[in-house]
Design goal:
With 167 residues, this protein is of the alpha/beta class. The protein has six helices and seven strands. The protein has helices spanning 22-33, 51-62, 77-82, 93-100, 117-123, 142-155; strands spanning 2-4, 13-15, 42-46, 66-71, 85-88, 107-110, 130-132. The strands form two sheets. A five-stranded parallel beta sheet has the order 5-4-3-6-7, sandwiched between helices. It has a two-stranded antiparallel sheet with strand order 1-2. Helix 1 (22-33) packs across helix 2 (51-62). The longest helix has 14 residues, at 142-155.
């Protein structure tokens, strides 16, 4: 099943995987597989309303790992419909995550450029366990996404080639 938000409705629309383009399904499978999910792991996801993250989160859960989705108030119904735990985003998210996952976070699938190096350090997530599938424009556009990815790669001790949204 694939949950998608339908504006103006309180619950997500549940669709069929037959509606998912193969590229989305492949990306979701790869994103889930990157964690090699097993029972006992807790994976944090952001962007549960994005098809790749939504499908990957369900695959991770089906492998037995616990999935926590950082959501805004308007997205809280999506993880609930999928059997995934919701965590309110915004100020204080680290404390809320630690409160419901005191054993820690095994990895993070960041679909909305929410996971900063500071938040990752605060939650004890090692850089190698953060995977980004950011394709949607963040506030500030493509350059904001590029800047966010650059910060995460620097946190991982890697370098990212120069990128400019202007071409």
């Amino acid at each position: 099943m694939l949950a998608t938000e339908t504006p103006g409705t309180p619950a997500p629309r549940i669709g069929s995987y037959k509606e998912v383009p193969p590229t989305i399904a492949t990306a979701a499978w790869a994103a889930a597989d990157a964690f090699a999910p097993v029972p006992g792991q807790t994976i944090l996801v952001t962007g549960i309303n994005l098809p790749v993250v939504c499908i990957a989160a369900q695959l991770i859960r089906l492998c037995g790992a616990r999935v926590l989705a950082v959501v805004s108030a308007g997205e809280a119904c999506i993880p609930k419909a999928l059997g995934i735990e919701a965590v309110g985003g915004g100020q204080g998210v680290a404390g809320r995550v630690r409160a419901i996952a005191p054993s820690g976070i095994s990895g993070c699938l960041d679909g909305e450029t929410v996971i900063t190096p500071e938040l990752a350090r605060d939650l004890g997530i090692v850089a190698e366990c953060i995977h980004s599938v950011t394709t949607a424009p963040a506030a500030g556009g493509d350059q904001a996404v590029a800047d966010h990815l650059r910060k995460l790669t620097e946190y991982a001790g890697l370098t990212l080639p120069a990128y400019s949204a202007q071409g």
